[in-house]
Amino acid sequence: MVISIFFFLLVSTLHTPSAQQTNSNISLGSSLTPTGTHSSWLSRSGLYAFGFYKEADGYAVGIFLAGFPEKTMVWTALRDNPQRVVPSNTTLLLSSDGRLLLRPTQGQDMYIANLDQPASSASMLDSGNFVLYNSDQQIIWQSFEHPTNTLLPGQRLSNGAELVSSASETDHSKGIFRLAMQGDGNLVQYADDNPRTTSMAYWASGTNGVGNNVTLNLDDGGYLYLLNSSSVLINLTTGGYPKKGMMYLMRIDVDGIFRLYAHSSDQKGNWSVLWESSTDKCDPKGLCGLNGFCTMMDREPLCRCIPGFDFVDPGKWSLGCERYFTAPSCKDKEANVMMPLPSTWEDHSYKVLS
After folding, report:
1. What pLDDT, on a 0 to 100 scale, did the predictor assign at position 22?
2. Does residue 283 lie in a domain region?
3. What's the CATH code of the domain at 56?
4. Which domain holds residue 125?
5. What's the whole-number average pLDDT of the chain?
6. Could you tell me if 141 and 191 lie in one domain?
7. Are the C-beta atoms of 330 and 322 separated by less than 8 Å?
8. pTM of the model
9. 30 and 171 inside one domain
């Protein structure tokens, strides 16, 4: 009890009342602005927040760990919308007609939640789940059922759902890597451009064929597992980590590998990796794009282009490489030589041309 009170007080000191709103019950007509008095709605303990955060030259909406010195994003709104990064004169609103939306001063409203019925209130829960209620106080929408790149304790990845990596560490729109909970019971990782066949997966749980009610689950002790109805199919982590004084989350990272992270609740130290789907950072297919290949350099992946090619964008390896020579130059026999290229062999062609 003493520890819990101390943690609550510690978290509370990390927020300034002028920038946050601590009431977890959000009524119709409530609004936020990126640079106004209220920029986010806090959970009751002040640990999680739903609202604006800085991205690129503007602001985006998401859920983040507000109780930490650095904002750790756990959910991002409107990832498919190219207009999701908005200027400072935009309003986030739970409208009087029960819709959760972004309203720019110019342009059309952008709806964050697709609702079959109007909401009557909302709440940012201490679990990290943002929920909308109807007039009977039943949940009609929740962020836990629409994950982006992260699973929190108590959250599950259900049949047919997937996690998608972010485009970069600073751009939280969709990246190219997916962790999919397939209908056949298999948990599989693909790159966006690859066909969803077994040969093109770069990681799989090997549970295909066990049924269509398998879910990926994370509990508050860092136990990550696949559940089929009421029985555990496979343990991805052994669990057994301390529950008190620790926080856990699972995320598919920008590099295509999904990892289990831990952080002490007292805010000391950094996030530490407890488990990862692969220790070889060159495993994710598609990391280097077309005409590129991956090599390891000091335990970090390094993308290279095949001879005669340069990166489309040196800052975005996944865009691949494009040729800088002309087709007629290929007839110059003296300029063409055979050379070995390490780390380029694949079991299947990247693309078959007719």
Report:
1. 46
2. no
3. 2.90.10.10
4. 1-146
5. 86
6. no
7. no
8. 0.84
9. no
